[in-house]
Amino acid sequence: MVTRLTTVDASFYFLEASNTPMHLGSLSILQPPRSGLDYEDLLTRVENRLALVPRYRQRVREVAFGIARPVWVDDRDFDITYHVRRSALPKPGSDEQLHDLVARLTSRPLDRSRPLWEMYLVEGLSKNRVAIFTKSHSSLVDGEHALEIGQVLLDPTKTPPPPTEELWMPRREPREAELVLDAVAEMVARPSEGAATLRMAVGDLIGTAAEVAGNIAAVVRTAAHTAPTSPLNAPISRNRRFAVAKTPLADYRAVRDKYACTVNDAILAVLTGALRNWLLSRGEPVTAFTTVRALVPMAVDSGVAERGVSSFLVDLPVGELNPVVRLSHIAHATEAHAKQNRPAALPLARMSGLAPATLHAMGLRVASGLSQRVFNLMITNAPGPQSPLYLGGAKVLEMYPVSPLLKNQTLSVGLTSYNGHVYYGLNADRDAMSDVDVVTALLYESLEELLDATT
């Protein structure tokens, strides 16, 4: 019995374009132990954990004539060395060189004839560090049944548990005639499936992704009009720039304690200040009423021992000069959303703890169910563990998300809190937003401005 891609998975698969590859990335900076962390160590480590993410050994097989959604089939020619790769920077490699490499790797679509993921061990970083960059297609990770490989690769201690013995044998791949007969039988039994497949064929992502989350309708109701005109929205190329910022989590907690808001409110206020000054640096007209509309998928508690992903549209007051007033506007908006939209959230049924990369994947699914005309950019905020994680004895020092760009959106902002810091990953179009480094510099200034207001 084959497993068919869900409607949402198939939407991501079919509607990917050369200038909008739909994979999520994760960049981790590690400090190897004295014994080191080389390519063979990583290869063994990944191979020992693949049983926990079986879809990472499967590829997508399309059905003849497009009469049904594709299916997942075991890759009989699976080659771990194709997916886990090795790269190096000229020693001593700088962080800027690493970010350029990540931007180039992010720009490249994944090979559809193989399982849809890649991992790179990047050596040569200064201070004896190494980096691991992972990219997984959005159709591969749903956060509930199919997890992101980073969720099973890292451990809370330096000494990993012993590997589980596993002999993997690929299942027989179905013949074309079998797939066609199954598809016809499904269309007869469930005619709505045929309608969904037709919508995908004509590019109706909103219609096919409507099953993603019950809160999409609530989000759409809040969008009485389209998003404001902004340089954040323009045709994009196939090339990317990537920039990061690392800030202390304690700073946001200080703002929270001073103004009785949430850490997420403080983060959004800092981003608002940075975007305001970025617009001014470009000579864009900024009035007291100028806003930037953000879609903010975020983790929520939806009940006892239940977690989920909810999302809301918030107008970031970039026209407001006072950082405390900006924070107040955002805090009131998020509080109103919490009161009016009690938890219609995409469930995280299989998650033990919060895995940032998986949460970012689910946030993207929420965003893709909406027309990009109703928001200017997506900001995903995924809380991570506040104690160190390790990979084969190597300590994870920093952790940056790399969220994909949606159509006509020049910037995507991902955030992950980990071990006492908040890590910003800014993925931008290389042509339309060549000055993304300016935004990261302004993030530090905006945070400092908000902190000054707390004293």
UniProtKB/TrEMBL annotation:
Segments forming domain O-acyltransferase WSD1 C-terminal: 309-450
InterPro entries per the UniProt record, alphabetical: Acyl_transf_WS/DGAT, O-acyltransferase_WSD1-like, O-acyltransferase_WSD1_C, O-acyltransferase_WSD1_N
Pathway where it operates: Glycerolipid metabolism; triacylglycerol biosynthesis; Lipid metabolism
GO biological process: biological process involved in interaction with host; glycerol metabolic process; response to hypoxia; response to nitric oxide; triglyceride biosynthetic process
Enzyme class: transferase
UniProt keywords, alphabetically: Acyltransferase, Glycerol metabolism, Lipid biosynthesis, Lipid metabolism, Transferase
Protein name: Diacylglycerol O-acyltransferase
